[in-house]
Amino acid sequence: MSNKAVIHIKDLTKVYQMGQTEVHALAGVSFDVQENEYIAIMGPSGSGKSTLMNMIGCLDTPSSGDYVLNGSNVSKMDDAELAEVRNREIGFVFQTFNLLPRTSCLANAELPLIYAGMKAAERHERAKEVLTKVGLGDRIDHKPNELSGGQRQRVAIARALVNNPSIILADEPTGNLDTKTGEEIMLLFEELYRQGNTLIVVTHEQEIADHARRIVRLRDGVIEKDEKVEHPVLANQQFA
Ligand SMILES: Nc1ncnc2c1ncn2[C@@H]1O[C@H](COP(=O)(O)OP(=O)(O)O)[C@@H](O)[C@H]1O
Ligand SMILES: [Mg+2]
């Protein structure tokens, strides 16, 4: 385990009790993630992707095994401790955006800072900064229903970035977008990666996974393959 491991996962299992039967959603998963990696997690339906994301995102705890996030052993934490770590360390991006529909982009983007207890003026400032970063500096007072799907996902990405988290965790981030808009979101992820962020993207689409630098493939609750992407999409593209 290197000093810069943001994530250290060892022999992680998750067993769901379904009446008489046990479902081994994760059956012993081990892997490390270093700072500024860009990883896609792939696998067929039912392979354990969402379960693993819930563990990594501190939304749930494992049945056994260790999960060390930035040096603290999260697998042993109670719900209150988990919530605190989650808010500080993880930026979530969901397929369905999960924005508050009746509030402005600014209010949506600054939500994690309210939980973190930051003062209003400082919060607005920081939220404006990240909205500008994702190309929505001129839309801060708009509500999500006044925006396109791609713009909504950008608001969600701004919200994910606002706390300066250790990891951006995206679950099928382009699943509700057309191909062209999905590509624009992947372009934004590429920029975030180049700026030093650590990205984990769950996807069942090979074209999306090919943007990452490493692909972890799950099957039946175990890692089937964990490999480097030889020629990542956008890797040779110049940025302004
Ligand atoms: N809350 C739950 N209760 C019982 N079984 C579950 C629960 N969540 C997931 N599972 C089971 O665990 C396995 C992995 O599910 P999941 O992590 O959702 O896979 P994926 O996201 O790759 O489709 C599946 O067999 C699924 O039915
Ligand atoms: Mg799933």
What does this structure look like?
By secondary structure, the chain is α/β, with parallel strands linked by helices. 32% of the residues lie in helices and 28% in strands. The protein has helices spanning 49-56, 79-89, 105-115, 120-133, 149-161, 179-194, 206-209, and strands at residues 5-18, 21-34, 38-42, 64-69, 72-73, 90-94, 167-171, 199-202, 214-219, 222-228. The strands form 2 sheets. Strands 6-7-8-3-9-10 form a 6-stranded mixed sheet, with helices on both faces. Strands 2-1-4-5 form a 4-stranded antiparallel sheet, with helices on one face. It binds adenosine-5'-diphosphate (ADP) and magnesium ion.
Concise summary:
By secondary structure, the chain is an alpha/beta fold. It is 32% helix and 28% strand. Helix 3 packs across helix 4.
Task: Write the topology of this structure.
Elements lengths: L4 E14 L2 E14 L3 E5 L6 H8 L7 E6 L2 E2 L5 H11 E5 L10 H11 L4 H14 L15 H13 L5 E5 L7 H16 L4 E4 L3 H4 L4 E6 L2 E7 L12
Parallel strand pairs: 3-8, 3-9, 6-7, 7-8
Antiparallel strand pairs: 1-2, 1-4, 4-5, 9-10
Bound molecules: adenosine-5'-diphosphate (ADP) and magnesium ion.
Secondary-structure element pattern, one letter each = EEEHEEHEHHHEHEHEE
The counted number of beta strands is 10
Strand order of the largest sheet: 6-7-8-3-9-10
Structural class computed from helices and strand pairing: alpha/beta
Level-2 CATH architecture: 3-Layer(aba) Sandwich
- Taking all Cα atoms into account, the compactness measure Rg is 18 Å
CATH superfamily: P-loop containing nucleotide triphosphate hydrolases
